[in-house]
Amino acid sequence: MLRGTSLTCYRQDSILFENLDLALDAGEILLVEGRNGAGKSTLLRILSGLLRPTSGEVSYQQEPIDNVLDTFNQDLLYIGHKPGVEPHLSAEENIRYWEKLHQQETLSDLVPVIQSVGLYGYEDIPAAQLSAGQQRRVALARLWLTKEKRIWILDEPFTAIDVKGVALLQQRIQSHLAQGGCLVMTSHQPFNDILKIDHRIVLG
Predict the structure, then answer these.
(1) Following DSSP, what letter does each residue of 106-140 receive, concatenated?
(2) What is the pLDDT of residue 76?
(3) Are 141 and 113 in contact (CB under 8 A)?
(4) pTM of the full structure
């Protein structure tokens, strides 16, 4: 489904990674690990098409992503390390804004989604007044809003959320994989008995 071939990335005078190959099929997880500054987030941005590698190619369904960009973008859900929420909007307003921005089907009732991410009772509070973990939950609500995004690329999705939030997110990931989706992520969370990691890349 998603493939990287001979991916190389230079940052100034240093090499973040070189001649990196990866392949990910439906129902699989790729975990990218490494120390801070090793290039994990950069690799995720390259795989999502937000950055170009110094050399190498990213392909989707055996086609370079530049050749199938519309299809690739329709099938991609990328959530970076920062929550990416509007601080002056409430949690519910942020979710509604994302729905409209990405032309998702608007739900008449957001309560089930808000409950799923543990924000019930906080939906009317401006994001600026929420904790880091709660802001992260607002961003992660996108995972419950879409059923058509086959590729999830998530940068540290478990950061700043509590045990209950981790469990809910793991359940949502398992459902996504069971429906034929795939996942690329970075994380420091242990997964030995929770999520099956099919591929690992260690940078740095």
Answers:
(1) PPS--HHHHHHTT-TT-TTSBGGGS-HHHHHHHHH
(2) 94
(3) yes
(4) 0.88
